[in-house]
Amino acid sequence: PGLHCKRPWNILRERTFFPPAELCPAYSRVRGLSSSSSPRVCIVGGGPAGFYTAQQLLKVGNAAVDIYERLPVPFGLVRFGVAPDHPEVKNVINTFTQTAQHERCSFHGNVNVGKDVTIDELRQAYHAVVLSYGAEGNRSMGIPGEDLPGVFSAKDFVGWYNGLPSNKELHPDLSFETAVILGQGNVALDVARILLAPVEMLKETDITQNALEALAGSKVRRVLIVGRRGPLQIACTIKELREMVNLPNTRADMLPADFEGIAEALKDLPRPRKRLTELMMKAVKEGGDDKAEKCCGFRFFRSPVEVLAGADGKRATGIRLALNKLEGSGESARAEVTGQLEDVDCGLIISSIGYKSIPIDPAVPFDPRRAIVPNEMGRVQDTAGLYCSGWVKRGPTGVIATTMNDSFDTAHVLIQDMEAGKLDLSVNKPGAQAITALLQTRGVRTVLFSQWEKINAEEEKRGKSQGKAREKLLDVDEMLKIAWS
Amino acid sequence: MSACALRVFLQRAAVTRKAAQQTFSQTRAFPQCVTGSYTHSKGINTLTNSLRAEEKVTVHFLNRDGKRISVKALTGESLLDIVVNNDLDIDGFGACEGTLACSTCHLIFEEAVYKKLGPISDEEMDMLDLAYGLTDTSRLGCQVCLRKDLDGMILRVPDVISDARVDSEKESSTAPPKV
C-alpha cells in the first residue's frame, strides 16, 4: 500500500512517504494512513526546548513530529529573550530552521494550546505529547507598591525591547536619572546594559525601533543592580559582567563595604567563581573614568520591602530596601534580616527575580509551589504518553545549552518508552491532519513554517532599509496578514 | 530516515552553519588560527584554504558513548569545523556555531597536547567557565586549530548535564544562570 498522489513525491518501497500536508492537498482527504512503524509526536511550544526535543526525536527512528506554537512566529526566548546585542547567541535559529524544514517535521503557529485545542484532544491525535511551553509568567516581589506605574518585571521590559507583541504598549518612562533593578542574574545585567549602552551600539541590532527611540531620549544615567546576598552569591556570569565593566562612558558605582572579607575567600573558590569575583573586585578598586556620564553598580545584602510613591501617590519615586546579613557561605548562604532599612530615590524599578511557568490545561498535573509540571526524568507524573522538556520541566534557569541537553534527555526517554512498548504504536494516530481540521471548525487557522518565512523576509527587508538586522513586526494581526498573503 | 537523506540534512545544516560562521566572523574579532608560519582569520579560512599547502592530520574523538571516531582533517581547521565537516555524531556540539556564545564544543585534551596549544583568550575562558565537567585540560573546540604537531591527538567529548544523573536541587547550585 502506498500514497497515491499526483505530485511527484518519492515513494519508498518499504515505507510510505508523508509529504507535509500543506503541499499535498489530496493528502488531507486521505485518512488513517500511518503505518504502525511511524509514531506521531506532538510538541507544545516552539522555543528552544520544543525544537531541540524535535531534533532529537527526528534523528532516531522514523517519528513524525509536529510543533505547535501560540504566536505566529517561532523560536520563543531566542527571539524574545536574548539581548539584541547578543546576535551570536541567536545562531541556534539556523539549526531550528533545519529541524522545521525536515520532511518529518511540521510547525504550526497561531495555535493556543489550552484554549484553541486541549491537551486531551492532542493526546488523542498523537502517540505522545511533549510539553515545552516554557515560563510566560514572572515571580512577583510581593511588596506594597509593586503595581505602581514605573515598576516593571524584567520579563516585560525585555519583551518590550525585543518586540514581544503583548509588551508593545509598555511605554516605560525613561525620564528619571536612576533605575533600580532587583535581581543580579544575566537578565538583570542585560536590562542594565540596554539601559546604559550608547545608542550607536544598539542601532544596527534587531532591537525594536520604538525601544531604540525611547532609549535615545532616555534620561537614565545611573543603574543599581540589587541582590539579597553577597558578591560570592551573584548569579550573573562573567561574560555579561565584563560587558558591563567595558561599557563606554560608564563608570562602576560599587560599595567597598559590600566586599569586606571577599579577598580572603578568593583562594578557595573554583575557577569560574574566582574569575567572576576578581573582575568585580577590579571594578571596585579601579572605579572607572570619572568623566563618564553614566554609572552602574551592584548593591548587595539588600531586599526590596516597599515601592515608595511620590506625594501624589500616583507613581513610583523610590524603593525601600532592607539590609541583610549572610548566614552560611557559598552557594547555599542565606540572607537574614537585620532590621535596618535604606531608601533609594529612583523612577524606574525593574524586578528581575525569575520567570515562572503557568498551568495551561486543567488535565495536566501542575506543581504550584515549584511552578513546574511534576515529572520523573521528563515523564509527566501519572500521565502515560505525556512528557515535558525545558523550563516547564525543570524551572526557569539555565542557558540555551542547558535546555538543549534537557530536551535531548526527554527525547531519549520518549524513544526508550516507544521501544519498550509503553506507547501503543499499533494504533493509528491522525496527527496534524486531524488537529488542523479541528482548529478550522473553531475558526483557527495555523501558520506554517514557510509562512513564517514570509514574516521573516518582511522583517529583514524592513530592517535593511533602516540599517538594522531586522525590524520585528509587533502586531500579531499584521504577522498573520503577511503569513497568509 | 535513509542514510542518504540524513547526510543531506546534516550537510545542509553544516553549510548553513558555515555561512553563519562566516557572516559573524565579519562582525566580531576572532582569535586567529595559527598554521605553520602564517596566520589567517577564521572568516577567510575556507576561502583561502585552497591556496595554501594544507596537510592532513589524524584526530581521534572519544565520544560520550565510549566509541572512538577517527578522522583525517586539514591543518588550519578548527576542531568545530572538523566535527561539522565530517558530520560526526556528537549531540549538540557547536550550538552557537563558533562565535564564543556557548560552551557546547567543550573538549578535553591529553595533558601533553594541552600544553602545546596556543594561548587562551579571556573571551574563551569566560565561556569555558560555564562548561559542565570543566577540567584543567579543557578547551573550546571552536578556538583550537589543527596543526601538524597535533597529529594523532585524542580528544575526549565530555559528558553533559543530564537530568537522569543530577537532581534538580544540586544542579541549581552548579548550573549557570540564564542567558
Quick structural overview:
Chain A is of the alpha/beta class. Chain A has helices spanning 48-59, 76-80, 92-100, 119-125, 154-161, 186-196, 199-202, 209-216, 238-245, 262-265, 271-286, 391-394, 400-419, 432-441, 449-464, 476-483; strands spanning 40-44, 64-68, 105-108, 128-131, 137-138, 151-153, 178-182, 222-226, 250-252, 294-299, 302-309, 316-327, 334-345, 348-351, 355-356, 375-376, 379-380, 386-388. Chain A is built from 16 helices and 18 strands.
Give descriptors for this structure.
heterodimer, A: 485 residues, alpha/beta, Rossmann fold, FAD/NAD(P)-binding domain, 2 domains, 6-stranded parallel β-sheet, 5-stranded parallel β-sheet, 16 helices, 18 strands, globular, disordered N terminus, B: 179 residues, alpha+beta, Ubiquitin-like (UB roll), 32% helix, 16% strand, disordered C terminus, NADP (chain A)
Task: Give a written overview of the molecule.
- Chain A has 16 helices and 18 strands.
- Chain A has 485 residues and is of the alpha/beta class.
- Chain A folds into two domains: 225 residues, Rossmann fold; 214 residues, FAD/NAD(P)-binding domain (3-Layer(bba) Sandwich), CATH 3.50.50.60.
- In chain A, the strands form five sheets. A six-stranded parallel beta sheet of chain A has the order 6-14-7-8-10-9. Chain A has a five-stranded parallel beta sheet with strand order 3-2-1-4-18, sandwiched between helices.
- In chain A, α1 links the parallel β1 and β2.
- In chain A, α5 crosses α6.
- Chain A starts with 39 loop residues before the first strand and ends with a helix.
- With 179 residues, chain B is of the alpha+beta class.
- Chain B has six helices and seven strands.
- In chain B, the strands form three sheets. In chain B, strands 4-3-7 form a three-stranded mixed beta sheet, with no helix packed on it.
- The C terminus of chain B is likely disordered.
- The interface between A and B is large, with 53 and 46 residues.
